[in-house]
Amino acid sequence: MEIIMSILAGTLFGTGIYNLLQKQLLRIIIGTVLISNGAHLFILTMGELKRGQPPILREGVTDYVDPLPQALILTSIVISFGVTSLLLVLAYRASKENQTDNMDKMRGNEYE
Amino acid sequence: MSNLAALPIIIPLISGILLIFLHNRMTVVRILAKVLTLGNLAVVAYIAYYIYQNGTITLEAGGWQAPYGIVLVADMLSIILVLTTNLVAVAAVFYAPSSLSNKQEHFYFYTFYFLLITGVSGAFLTGDIFNLFVFYEVMLMASYALIVLGGGRIQLRESIKYVLINLFSSVLFVTTVAFLYSVVGTVNMAQLAERVGEVEQKGILTTIAILFFFVFAIKAALFPLYYWLPNSYVAPNPVVSALFGALLTKVGIYSILRVFTLIFIYDPNLQQFFIWIAGLTMLFGVIGALSTNNIKLVIAYNIIPAVGFMILGIGLFNQTAISGTVYYLVHDMIIKAALFLLVGAVAYLAGTTDLRKIKGFMHHYPVLGWLFLLATFVLAGIPPFSGFIGKLLLLQAGLASDRVIIVIIGLITSFLILLSLMRIFIQCFWGEKDNDAYTVDKQAARKFTLPVILLLFFSVVLGIGAEFFYPIAESIGKYLMNPEIYIDSVLKE
Amino acid sequence: MIFTVFFPLIIAIVIPFLNRFKKRIHTGVFALVVPLGIFLYFIRFIGEDFQPVSQQVPWIPSLNIMLDFYLDGLSLLFVLLISGIGALVTLYSIYYLHKNEKLGHFYVYLLMFMSAMLGVVLSDNVFVLYSFWELTSISSFLLIGYWNHRERSRYGALKSLLVTVFGGLSMFAGLILLSIITETTSIQEMVLQKEMLLNNDYFPLIMTFLLLGAFTKSAQFPFHIWLPDAMEAPTPVSAYLHSATMVKAGIFLVARFSPILSGSEWFFIVVSIVGIITLCWGSYMAVRQTDLKAILAFSTISQLGMIMAMLGFGTEVAVFAAAFHILNHATFKGSLFMVAGIVDHETGSRDIRKLGGLFTFLPITATLALFGTFSMAGVPLPFLNGFYSKEMFFDSALNLTEGSLTLTTFLRNVIPYLAVFGSIFTFVYSMYLFFGTFTGKGDIGSLPKRPHEAPVGMLVPPAILVVGIILIGLFPNMVNQPFLAHAAEAISGMKLEEKIAFWHGITPPFRMSLTVVGIGTLLFVFRNKWKGIYHAIPGPLSLNRVYDWLLEKTESYSSRMTKGYMNGSISRYVALILTTILLVTFTFMGFTEGFVMDTSNLAEVSTLEISIAIVMIVAAFGTIFSNNNIAAIIILGVVGYGISTLFVIYRAPDLALTQLIVETVTVALFLLCFYHLPKLRKNVDSKRTKIINSAIAISFGTLMTMVAISSHSSKWFEPISEYFIETSEELAGGDNVVNVILVDMRGLDTLFEITVLGIAALGIYGLIRLRNKKEENE
User: Fold this and answer.
1) Alpha helices in C592-652, H assignment, sequence order
2) Where, by residue number, does the polypeptide cross the bilayer (chain A) (predicted)?
């Protein structure tokens, strides 16, 4: 299963990157969301899947899944949420100011 | 006393939060920001002295023993960099009011500024690789907020590029941490070093090391990953540029220095690779600096060859070279801040960044001119200033390892760095008096010069007084070449 | 001794304050004290029984950088030149520079230079030597740029800085190599290890590096190009830096390291060839110039070439003659520069085509010039010092050491002819300089000023130098044993007994001198007949153009190259960055056998998970092809909620909850943005771009998958999280281990994670509000 999950996460990365390489701002942002999701899936997979109960201690249970990756993912989810929100607002403002959402038209030159 | 290690993070954090609530009283904020920055500098200076006397401080956050909880490791290297960071911060906070608009200040500039310091200091101090990621994010988020602050069309446009590239490298960072955790089962840096050493960095570990390298290299602006840097560092206000130029890339370099002298030290091909990267970074960076007539851009490009010099030391991987990198790191933080503040002042006073449109500044602003010339010589590594010592150590290490070509590249780079800045000096400061192009504002110029004088003072002291500072760099070099000292100080109490 | 080196610098710091009195007292008066004092201090060392003196003050001992000062014969010669000529030049400048000029600056630079130069010739520590060396370049730069409102002045200043700093850096590399191989930073100790150095593999490189430094500083061909442009400096500066002292720093360097370097035959070959070519080229080009100072500049180049060549010859006579000529050149060239300055000052022009017949107006100046030029030409008269050293030059050119290389034999045959050739032109330009300025019919009316004799103050310094010319000429042995012999000894490392005499009989050198005078006179008289040759050589070719071209091309190529890849396109940047990461990572993975796949430790596969995975993969691809906003949101939602489901399946309830909430808010934010931003469009990239992008994306996905599988297959250690499960309840009192980790064990992460959110919130607030205010204002 870990291999399939790795392939799934890799696919999310790949499709995310394809979107990242586009010109339209919105697609680029969709790309970043996909990549973040892929990353979280990778972290989860790296902690070994389904090797025990959820890490909530109960009597009589000795096998729990690795709790640390879960904690790391939580931190990471919150952070990427923050960044994505800022990015969305920034994208909105930047495309309004520059009157385009095409990154190729936002190249600029050095004397502005 | 181990709680000391947290102060350089906690003080700016609290300061930043405190200032949110005062943002309607700008006068108070300005004064308070200065006082708090100075206070933090004093505290850090004391901690540095304490560490100098008593050795590394490790703080196990929340009392959870290493390697299970997060540790903060304030060793000499970290604290020196935190100290330099705060020095730059002092210059920036005194420069800020004359350079920023009221609105920018009003919209939490000082909060972001303090949180940036928090993130940077945290990154220098943490002994946990996931926590390093978190501090990276604090630093980056503060930098995103600063780079967009009060921005117009251009600033927003460049900000987007900056955020996107850094976002990507952050995601890569966290993923790579997960891979590493899977292999060695820990995120504590000392234990990572221990465990990677036990298996001699075999199998997938070198690949993971390379991914880490790229994560940090994007931040550090190494060849060929620096595309995002020049324009996005030019777009924001000079204070922000100075903070970015002085601090952000250096956090990347610090991370490479730490990770590749502590954890991934078992593959000489990596070091060979670093040396190649160093050469290319120097050349392409300095070529970039010669390619433009935009004075701010010249300085932004000049970040890149300096980073090349530092990575060279890591690639050469011996004690002299590492000491050289440390010396260069401190030197470059100070001088880059000074240069960004200087060209910021020039651009402000002249009303343009195009060097072909500025001339005869020396007649109106002689102090600014002399400071710029001094900064030029400091940056180009002319003795007896700080750049010389770092360069001397790195070139010595290079020649002692029979790497003549990279040394020649280094010398050519130094030469071209000098040329790139002399173009500005000769064009903008020399020449006939130009009374029509700009209005002379000596009052403003004076406000700009004080922080720059402070920074350059330290550049000169670091050079002429090298006898006092080199032994520290030397001991850091020795310390980094013997990772077991670090491991022991964290894991075996 | 150490004090004397820093004395000028200390005074330089005070000068700006003294400059306030410049209405009453010319600032130069204060500055004059410095070189005079130093000169008087050092003159007492002259004597037959002179012994080297050394003094050491630690500077950066931990890097072996000490202020080691070492005064031997060679240093003494230079120290006296620097302070002696320095005093005369300062005196001269008091009358030359008007009080309205920025005198403060001028004397600060001048004193800075004096310190630097003293440091260069007295340092025994190579890195201190290098420090002072660069300081001479910098002060020279500032002095040339003194009148920086002139375009030529800025051009000349930059050129001199670039050429000399280039050489300085090269020398720096040579010095580092020397210090690494010999494990010392002291030149004296390096000399003791010369045998070992000669056999070191790095010896050729060291020699190349050091000689590049010396040749650039001493304006040797083809690096001489900076010197003529350096004439933009005020004339006292030209007299001081660009004839008597700084340009001789390169000579000094070669002399200083000659005990080590001259052991190699290649030293003879390279230094002699460069010296002789410089001699010939400099004198040949001097005749072509029309500006008095330009003639003198090329003449300096040529004379430096001659000294360099003699150092290259390395024989006893040659080395002695080199030391002798260093002294002689300083006397006559110093005086001639001052004369040129007087002419410029009193007539307002330095153009030799306008000048002429000035003898009647400036008789004293003309007399001084007569001695200077004739001494420079090497006219055989017993009261001109230039003749003696010229004759010794010929003598040494005829008696070169034999060597094993064919090139050496060839040079032995050619050098005497080239020496005569160069000297002929030296004779011609000397005559041209004197007669062109002071005799004949000048167009006095066209001069900007009506010429008259200069004030006494300006005449005294050149007069003193001319007295020197005559005294040395009449009593050459006066300076021989007590002074020059020590210098020559320091260069060659052996005690020399050289007697200087005017008349040796009709010896070959004397015949060479006569040939020079004979042919020289003919060429001078008929100079208009052969001047056309300059159209052929150098013609339009010029090394200056090479310099300009290089500078221009450096900028334009940099510009083109950088703009080629820094095109501002974010997708391009990302593509380049990813390609780099891919190439390097795959390479390293391949070489270190990074990829392993171990299928023994896997969770079982279930249909449910597979179905979810397939749905998510389809959705992920959907984002690429969807051109509809609502569809895009749904698809993105599918991926997000898919992950939540997976979190549930994989025993991570907290994650699932968080992911659900975050996903929902993100979708809401996206909706908002969709409302404001233009609709998704079809991807209009060219087919090629699409293929490249897909290749990058697929490779990167593959890379990450491979690293993940490989990492999963190499679980070599027990994860630390066991500890968390064991201690969570006992130490932290919580049974949800993930929560305990978040709030306690890794509480620091959480604290700063919240900080990140906080900054994001404030940043967003600023982004929105700052704009609103602006719009309200508009």
Assistant:
1) 607-625, 629-649
2) 25-47, 67-92
